Fold ABC transporter permease subunit.
Amino acid sequence: MTGGFPLLRLALHRRRRMIIALAVGIAAFEALIVVITTTVTPDQIFGASGRKLPDAFKAFSGSNGDVSIASYPGLLGAGLTHPFWIAMQLTAVGSLAAAAVAADVEAGTIELLMVRPVSRARLLAERTAALVLVSLLLNTAATLSVSIGVALLPDLSAAVPQSGVYAAGLLGFGFALCLTGPALAVSAAGRSRTRVMGVTIAVGAVGFAVNFVAMAWSKAAPLRFVSPFHYYTPGDALAHGTVPWGQFGVLAGVGAAGILLAFGLVARRDLAP
């Protein structure tokens, strides 16, 4: 337990099959979205050009502005807010966050770790680093898959700048950080993997539903500010080619606040099962 970040390496090694499967799966899925986007044009999917779709449909393309799902940026954005994409992120964050603290407390193995010369802060830091690295890997895999497709296909190249693809990928990483913070805080305070997974799903899946309702129903519009999907807008990034730094700051800020809270909680809690 001395040099070489053993806890980080062990966390990655134990879940190497899951990590590889998620990375390959998310890259293949985004490649499929690219193929579908160019094989079936937006006009063929949504009818004649110029048709105005309800504002709520912007939630599916990851847009708070003027990017319609009936466009190339909108269709690619839909691949980056699709339930499959969300599920990949939730699986990685929930699994690794639960394993950070709560899983060992639940299984009664945390005391074996603490017997060795390793501090609570180091335990959490290395396992947090493993989670951040996996989130970065998944979003990089998705981003590269879309980037290659845009580079190879003229129709997409004309409508979507490469800078937009990478801006959307950075927002995706910010979204993963937004999930990571609360999940780690619950793991640091809790004794059950189930509770960590529940919070992760609530932030991700319920957050998407809240954003959709807020965009569809004007009376619920203020609720959009509590959903991470109000700030995670890949459709806008793909269309405009720039990173909305304010929105990225909110996503990363929530993640950082949750991680700091997790360190405070794990330093003070009773680790006995």
